[in-house]
Amino acid sequence: MKISRYVLSIATFTLAVYGLITSNFEFNHIMIFLLGLTMLVMGIEEYKKERKTIGTLLVGVFIFLLFVSIEGFLLN
To answer: TM segments (predicted)?
Structure first.
């Protein structure tokens, strides 16, 4: 789980920096999707640590980001 969280975080950060440097925001929906997956992994980790409130919040953020990224995919 830790490795997947780090890989997803680095991929999200890379796309965010790319968008900021080049002012090319066509990959924003992919970045938001990767951010959502990162939140899902973090939520699962919190559930395993018996922190259900924070885990539920992170999974809720994942669901919201999933809808936002799907909207981005459909509009492009």
So the answer is: 29-47, 54-75
Between 25 and 10, the higher pLDDT residue: 10
Closest CA to 73 of 33, 14, 20: 33
**Residue-number span of the structural domain to which 34 is assigned:** 2-75
Place of tokens 């951010």: 35
Longest dimension (CA), the chain: 42
Residue 73 zone, left/alpha/beta (φ > 0; ψ -120 to 50; rest): alpha
- Whether residue 62 contacts residue 37, with contact meaning beta carbons closer than 8 Å, is answered with yes
Question: Does this model's pTM top 0.85?
Answer: yes
5-23 per-position pLDDT tens digit: 999 999 999 999 999 999 9
Number of domains in the chain: 1
